[in-house]
Each structure stands twice: as C-alpha cells, then as structure tokens.
Amino acid sequence: MFVDSNPPLLHHYGALLHHPSNDSIPQCHENHITEECQLPLIDLDGLKSLDRLECSRAICRASSEWGFFQVVNHGISPELIKKMRREQMKLFSVPFEKKQTSGLLNNSYRYGTPTATHPTQFSWSEAFHIPVTKISEQACYGEFTSLREVMEEFAAAMSKLAKVLATVLVNNLGNQKEDLEDICESSSCFLRLNRYPACPFSPEMFGLVPHTDSDFLTILCQDQVGGLQLMKDSKWVAVKPNPDALIVNIGDLFQAWSNDVYKSVEHKVMANEKTERYSIAYFLCPSYDSLIGSCSSRESSIYRKFTFGEYRNQIQQDVKKLGHKVGLSRFLL
C-alpha cells in the first residue's frame, strides 16, 4: 500500500490556483530574475589570526550592504552536516498523517500557508520549527532516536557560531547600551527543518513567500538545489549555492537594534519543478518579553521601543488581516 509523505499542497492550493479571479502563477511575481549572485564570502579563520580586524569589517560591511553573506571555516564539520541531512530526510519521508498528528518535535510540524487566499501567498513547503529548549527532550522524537543526538550537536554548533557572529556585529557598533547576549539566550532560539517538495505547477511557485526574518540573526544550511533569492538594488537576484558555505542573514531585530546600520533584507525561496530541496535554519531570538531598542546612546532611535512578543503579535495580526507581514515600518517613530 502506497502512503504519501507529501503534505496535501496540491489539494489545498489546486482550487485557488484555478479560480477564475486569480491570475496565472507567473504573473503573480512582479519582480523577475535578472542575474545570479555570489554572496560575499567570508573565511572565519580570519577571526583567529592577525586578519581578525579585516575579517570583522567584512562581516559588518556585508551586513550593511547586503544583509546577507556566506561563511566558510565556520566550525561545523561536513560530517555533522551530512548526518543532520540524512536524519532530516528520514524524518520528512514518513507518512504525512504521522508528521501532522504524532506530536513529533514538540508538535512543531507545519506545511503550506493555511491563511493563503491568493497564489502570491502560497508557500510550497513543509517544516518542523522547534524551540532549542525542546531538542533535548526524548519524548519529542518517538522512534527517531538517532535524530535527537544529531540535532543536539547541530543546534549547539549553530548556537556557538551565531554568538561569534553576533559579537562581531555588536562590537562594530561601539558604545552600545546593553549586551546582545543579555537578551539572546539559547533557550529562546529555534531550529527549523525545511523541505520544499517538487512542485508540479510551475518553477515560478514560491517555496517560501517573500519575507524578512523576525529574529536577530539567521544561519542557513542548505543543499545544492538552489532556489534562495534576495532583494538587492531593488531587484531579485538568485543565490548561487556553495557546498562549503553556510548562509547568514540579518533579521528585523538586528536592523532595529543597530538603528538601521545592518539591513534585514527581503528574501524568498522558489519551488523547483522537478527536484525537492532541503535546508536547516537556526534563528537567534530573544525572549518574548525582551525590549528591543537602539543600541546607541549617542543617536536618536529610528524605531520606538518594543518587545519581541509585541512584534510577533503585530506580525500575526497583519498576516491575518492583510495576508502579508508588514514588519519594522509599523514601529517607526
């Protein structure tokens, strides 16, 4: 008996895609790809050498000019990444009903965009979005006992890397009023396992709709299928996969905290017509009651102070009411 592991995206989106009031999928995307880009590539071995200052400057420059960069010699072994990918693929291969109903990984399974009413809001993907605090809990894993040990090791390595990068970015700002480590603890961070199934409709379908990340910092480990695109100089550019690199991007909170020195850049993932895609993201987040304000004691803040919980609630309200995230502009002074 064949049991499908894919979520029912075709069933849920099919009627909306073919509704007379909806445009064809290619017309849903206003921005067309004009080029493939190579993100700034930073060798983190430079942080351990006499080149530390130049390496730090490169990280900060990329965070200001691109909002994205990629790192090599990041301290996470290829063997650990391979083990994590094998476990991830094994997890996503189980029947859809089991993923949805068995409470795996703190009942964190999600798929598609439940609130979508138009093709521009569709995400052709599935994910487990798990709090780091739950990764060590044996009850989360059921029969997937080997996944727990690998996820613990992987999350710890990502957390260590995130703190190194955040420290570089904070130190560059100078004269900060508070330490980022005081509000970003590993207990408030998340690990997200993503799968983007092959999409039968069109290579123009979103795997993940255009958005900015709502955290301080995101570290992405992706496969070589490609599909990640970001907004650069008012146009979408495709990110060329690098098998040796992890991708890092600035989130909304770091943009607000740095008073717009660092940029949280809109990005998306395009579905592939023939090939599935996998990625793993680590999100550096504060607790929900953490107050986000400008780190500078010399300059006037661009944004009013807000808590992370307040920010998340506003995003959820906007998505429910408008169908999309508004983000930082809601909090401008």
Automatic annotation (TrEMBL):
<dbReference type="InterPro" id="IPR026992">
    <property type="entry name" value="DIOX_N"/>
</dbReference>
<keyword id="KW-0479">Metal-binding</keyword>
<dbReference type="GO" id="GO:0046872">
    <property type="term" value="F:metal ion binding"/>
</dbReference>
<dbReference type="GO" id="GO:0009685">
    <property type="term" value="P:gibberellin metabolic process"/>
</dbReference>
<dbReference type="Pfam" id="PF03171">
    <property type="entry name" value="2OG-FeII_Oxy"/>
</dbReference>
<dbReference type="InterPro" id="IPR050231">
    <property type="entry name" value="Iron_ascorbate_oxido_reductase"/>
</dbReference>
<dbReference type="InterPro" id="IPR005123">
    <property type="entry name" value="Oxoglu/Fe-dep_dioxygenase_dom"/>
</dbReference>
<dbReference type="GO" id="GO:0045543">
    <property type="term" value="F:gibberellin 2-beta-dioxygenase activity"/>
</dbReference>
<dbReference type="InterPro" id="IPR044861">
    <property type="entry name" value="IPNS-like_FE2OG_OXY"/>
</dbReference>
<keyword id="KW-0560">Oxidoreductase</keyword>
<dbReference type="Pfam" id="PF14226">
    <property type="entry name" value="DIOX_N"/>
</dbReference>
<comment type="similarity">
    <text>Belongs to the iron/ascorbate-dependent oxidoreductase family. GA2OX subfamily.</text>
</comment>
<dbReference type="InterPro" id="IPR027443">
    <property type="entry name" value="IPNS-like_sf"/>
</dbReference>
<protein>
    <recommendedName>
        <fullName>gibberellin 2beta-dioxygenase</fullName>
        <ecNumber>1.14.11.13</ecNumber>
    </recommendedName>
</protein>
<feature type="domain" description="Fe2OG dioxygenase">
    <location>
        <begin position="185"/>
        <end position="286"/>
    </location>
</feature>
<keyword id="KW-0223">Dioxygenase</keyword>
<keyword id="KW-0408">Iron</keyword>
